[in-house]
């Protein structure tokens, strides 16, 4: 498939560094969305990316990553049906494809741009510009405290396959009063983020909304979700809080020092 024709790489067109980085991530999102739609695999924006879709109809202006959610069944189909079709400049990162990747119990998988980086050779794992993929299981008690406690009990199952097996068993065995959430809540600090989960009715059906120059899929219960997480989500934070998630400034055309990286030549 001619991805460069369908989704040309425009990272050099914007003037600012953050806009160049967002152009990289937007292209990855378009490819991800296209392939998911072709295979009838469902995903949804979450967190700051969901907030950006609602408040800005695109990226939060200072945001430097993208957050996506998928239910377990959709994620497993994505791995088998879509990942083999990804273009050569996108790296699918898990503990299986990148053994030094440390975050499988935090972010299940990432799509990484092979030409870019967040930090200058600081880590042994690939650190290109990213789409975070969080896997959601309907296997948690609907309270932030109990979700975090349950995730800590599952901490010993941070091997992806073993953890998935446990969560599938919970979702099949426990009565219906459970909610969907992901590994992100393994940290006690997330108590300050509000209630970071979805009720089943909020995920069914998913809806399409504008995001930059494309459409993306979000939960139909986006308002309740954003209110739980952010309170008055339409209010902009103070200017000193409008910062990226990463300490160093990301580089859209300089790769990290990793065997899966590629050298960007169009800027020479």
From TrEMBL:
Family annotation (InterPro entries): LicD/FKTN/FKRP_NTP_transf, LPS_cholinephosphotransferase
Protein name: LicD family protein
One Pfam match: LicD
Organism per entry: Mucilaginibacter boryungensis
PANTHER family membership: LIPOPOLYSACCHARIDE CHOLINEPHOSPHOTRANSFERASE LICD (PTHR43404), MNN4P (PTHR43404:SF1)
Superkingdom per UniProt: Bacteria
Residue stretches making up the LicD/FKTN/FKRP nucleotidyltransferase domain: 36-164, 184-231
Coiled-coil stretches: none
